[in-house]
Amino acid sequence: MERIIECGNIVFSYNGTDVLNGINFSISPGQMVGILGANGAGKSTLLKILSGLLQPNSGETLYRNKELSKLGRKELSKHLAYIPQNPVFAFPFTVTETVLMGRAPYIGRFEFEREGDIEIAGQAMETVGISHLKDRLISQVSAGERQLASLARALVQEPEIMILDEPATFLDVRHRTEIMKILLKLKEERGISIVSATHDIFAALYYFEEIKILKDGVIFAEGSTETVVTEENLSNAYGINVTVKKENGRVFVFPSD
Amino acid sequence: MNASKKFHISIALLSLLWLVIALISIFTGTYEIGPIDAILNPDELSKTIFLNIRIPRVLMATIAGGTLALSGAALQALFRNPLASPFTLGISGGASLGALIAIRLGLGIGILGFSMISISAFIFSILTMLFVYSVSKVGGVVATGRLLLAGVVANFLYSAVVMFIQFFSNFTESLQTMRWIMGSLDIVGFDTVWKTLIFVIPGCLLLLVSTKDMNLFGLGDDVATSLGVDVKRLERKIYFATSLAAGSVISVTGPIGFVGLIIPHILRMILGVDNRIILPCSFLLGASFLTAADTVSRTVISPVEIPVGIITAALGGIFFLWLLIRTKKEVIV
């Protein structure tokens, strides 16, 4: 089976504490994978290693069969986009300017964006539904709209894989749903692979076809969403008792105590 | 308007502004020389004044103002904070002390054409910047409160040492130091100009080629890295280049305050925050501003020259105050 990213036996420790303890992970084209796990389970670290932002202490990460760390960062950014949980916007660029920054890998050091780039940014803003904000300052739009701008920024990189670290954690339910729907659309219409950490079990249930659950630096459960999201696994992952109920073909999860 | 168009128009207009101010400045002063006389029929005295005083001085104001404003804009990008500048971060203080120590130790002689005074100012600048950066960065983010406090602390420490040196100086030395600390562009001949340019040109160029990366850097370390920026290298580049350029300017002119803070601010209000536009424009507007301020400083109560640092600090203080009042509703962390 064709693989975009494949990593084997990833070990990562930080200040003497093991964060990841032998992770094997692979993702195929057009796959949408959710990563669940309690705070501190190592989700963010894993995503950063998959994105090439952190180097593991041992183990290897391959991007299309090539060692990830040996690929030029700029070249990689034309294929892989990363979206953090709480993106930083230090200066009040306009929303369009922010989105255009995703074109950086395609623009030379002394060049400005061309008409084509501006068009691509316009389409991306349309896709995520923020065209009406294009001239607003990024500092003056809501957190949800900022995250949508991040998504558009990632989109103009024209990636084949997007790696997201809990993109919807700080957002209200409408924006959360919106973001998940957009991701699903990108996957289905453009075949973009999605890897996303999430605390939102409901989103995981409805939108991801595959789930991996992380605990103490290892993946202790993985597979199709139905097989993985069980009372036993969730109780184990979060350390509380969880009830999983199925009704009318939908799955509900809630704490039992 | 797209970024490219904005860039070209603002560069053209600001270059024109600088040219006009520079020309006015050259023909203004205690000793009056009309432009027509100066070009068609110059006497010996006029020639000397032009070549040894006015032109070098306008060039020095241009270099100093441009460099300080450009460094300010770059530091604001590095600290991801609009209040960073060579003055507020204590870098000016550091460079001043470095220069003063070199002067007092009699290190006026250069090594291979590099002035020891500039080198000493550079070393103190870069140490101050490393100190302030490491103290104010908490969890990957620069906290404004810590940043300003660290700058204030650095400035206090340096001024304590400067006062200590002052205390043991004789009257003439003390007066010289005092004048120098007030910030002045009082130079004679082109020698100082060349010596400063050796440091300023590489420093400024290094900053100007990094403006695209500075924009991406504003999206946070992780996103910037994921878009192809070598974040650690960019940080080191900005440390090094601003210390080199601003340090060597300050070693000649003394700490001219607030140019590095005001100029990028004004430009951002008009042109937006794109560093590819803000940095080069900061150089041009900073150059124009300091040249104008210097012209005022040497003509307002002519023949007495007020140190230009007094004028920029006064304007800067008022501007800072206005900024504080205007941003009162925003929480400064």
In summary, what is this structure?
The complex is a heterodimer of chains A (257) and B (333). Chain A has 257 residues and is α/β, with parallel strands linked by helices.
Beta-strand segment tally of chain A: 12
> Largest sheet of chain A at a glance?
6 strands, mixed
- Assembly state here? heterodimer
Low-confidence blocks of residues of chain A: none
The mean pLDDT of chain B is 86
Query: Topology as H/E string of chain B?
Result: HHHHEEHEEHHHHHHHHH
Give, in spatial order, the strands making up the sheet with the most strands of chain B.
1-2
Shape of chain A: globular
Compute the gyration radius of chain B: what is it?
Answer: 20 Å
Name the helicity range of chain B: over 70%
pLDDT averaged over residues of chain A: 90
Roughly how many Å is the radius of gyration of chain A?
Answer: 19 Å
- Distance between the terminal alpha carbons of chain B, to the nearest Å? 33 Å
Low-confidence segments of chain B: none
- Name of the CATH first level of chain B: Mainly Alpha
Output the number of helix runs of chain A. Answer: 9
* Number of self-contained structural domains of chain B: 1
What is the chain-wise order of helices and strands of chain A? EEEHEEHEHHHEHEHEEHHEE
Task: Kindly report the greatest chain-chain contact and the residue count on each side.
Answer: A-B, 37 and 29 residues
Give me the count of strands of chain B. Answer: 4
Distance between the termini of chain A: 43 Å
Structural write-up:
The complex is a heterodimer of chains A (257) and B (333). In chain A, strands 6-7-8-3-9-10 form a six-stranded mixed beta sheet, sandwiched between helices. Chain A is an alpha/beta fold and 257 residues long. In chain A, a hairpin with a 2-residue loop joins strand 1 and strand 2. Chain A is globular. Chain A has a domain at 84-158. Chain A has nine helices and twelve strands. The two termini of chain B are 33 Å apart. A two-stranded antiparallel ribbon of chain B has the order 1-2. The model of chain B has no long low-confidence stretch (mean pLDDT 86). Chain B is globular. Chain B has a single domain (3-326), classed as ABC transporter involved in vitamin B12 uptake, BtuC. In chain B, strand 3 (137-138) and strand 4 form a beta hairpin. With 333 residues, chain B is mainly alpha-helical. In chain B, helix 12 crosses helix 13 (275-299). Classes of the chains: A alpha/beta (257), B mainly alpha (333). Chains A and B meet through helix 2 and strand 6 of A and helix 1, helix 9 and helix 10 of B.
